[in-house]
Specification:
- The chain is of the alpha/beta class.
- The strands form two sheets. It has a six-stranded mixed sheet, sandwiched between helices. The chain has a five-stranded mixed sheet with strand order 3-2-1-4-5, sandwiched between helices.
- It is globular.
- The chain starts with a strand and ends with a helix.
């Protein structure tokens, strides 16, 4: 009989940092939430332009890291894993960030945990494992294309029970906002320039990840879950209604266009909108629209699945299985 292991998993991206404390059965991969948290810290704010993590972004992120380390200890996690993505790959002062995380866990969790800047391949594998874990039980079949739309980059991963092909491209919602969408709301010219950038990146991704024959498109991360909340016209952000929601591609495109056309004030007034997503959701919506349209064109997909389970769940699974 297998026993569960309580683990802490942290996913630190360009825009947000998230914690999952969960009980994991390493044999079956079954995962039961104890705590999920998400804070917008903007670790990668300006990194595309400056090549440096800003001091205030670093301090915000490390302050939350100390809280997360303490939560892992208080809830009885026996091991923890901290995965850092795009911003801490790109910054020249990444070593300071790594040292800050290590110190935070040593003090507040009781053992050293170093942030791992995983390769694109491992990031894809973790995202895929987290995202597809619950799909087969729901009768949602592969081959899957799992798309993890982050702040700095977007990962496209194809597979059925394991990763068959993956590619990460530099089209995240923060990066596209900083590069192109300066106006409020964005102008047609800005949207056209961003679209050219996005389409070129998706061409690059498609050279490594074939899209023909995909049965199910699965979208992950805050941009996609927020767009889905908009499509469902939720009166609050409800993860249980968003997780494994199945939507018609045409409805998803309309929801994307809606959000892209809104002013920041209009977005901020939406009941499911996290304040930290207000200024970047337009770019996220534009990236997601182009992905959905491409999958309709290449594979004739009839529905889009949104998953609340993603790389964070994959990190928790990997922590439990790590010897």
């Amino acid at each position: 009989m297998s026993s569960t292991i309580r683990v802490g998993a942290v996913d630190c991206g360009t825009n947000s940092i998230r914690l999952l404390v969960a009980d994991v059965d390493p044999a079956t991969g079954a995962l039961t939430d104890v705590l999920r948290r998400m804070e917008i810290v903007r670790l990668g704010h300006g990194v595309d332009r400056t090549g440096v993590i800003a001091a205030e972004s670093m301090e915000r992120t490390l302050a939350v890291t100390r809280e997360y380390a303490a939560a892992c200890r208080e809830l009885g996690a026996t091991r923890a894993r901290f995965v850092a993505t795009s911003a801490s790959r790109d910054a020249s002062n990444a070593a300071d960030f790594i040292e800050g995380v290590r110190a935070a866990f040593l003090e507040h969790f009781g053992s050293e945990v170093s942030p791992e800047v995983v390769s694109g391949d491992e990031e894809a594998s973790l995202s895929f494992a987290g995202a597809t874990g619950g799909l087969t039980a729901q009768g949602v079949g592969g081959p899957y294309l799992v798309v993890d739309l982050g702040g700095g980059s977007t990962e496209l991963v194809r597979g059925t029970d394991h990763v068959e092909a993956a590619r990460s491209v530099d089209i995240g919602c923060v990066r596209m906002t900083e590069r192109h969408l300066a106006s409020d709301p964005p102008t047609d010219e800005e949207i056209a320039a961003a679209t050219r950038d996005i389409d070129a990146a998706l061409d690059l991704a498609e050279s490594a990840v074939p899209l023909e024959g995909i049965a199910t498109l699965v979208g992950l991360a805050g941009s996609v879950t927020t767009i889905t909340a908009h499509l469902l016209r939720l009166t609050a952000y409800e993860p249980d209604r968003i997780h494994l929601a199945r939507s018609a591609p045409a409805d998803m495109v309309v929801a994307c266009d809606d959000l892209l056309a809104m002013t920041r004030a209009e977005r901020a007034a939406l009941p499911y909108m996290h304040p930290g997503r207000v200024d970047v959701i337009g770019a996220g919506a534009l990236v997601w629209r182009r992905v959905v349209e491409r999958l309709v064109d290449r594979a004739g997909i009839a529905e889009v699945v949104t998953s609340e389970h993603d790389i964070l769940d994959g990190i928790a699974l990997s922590a439990a299985r790590h010897d």
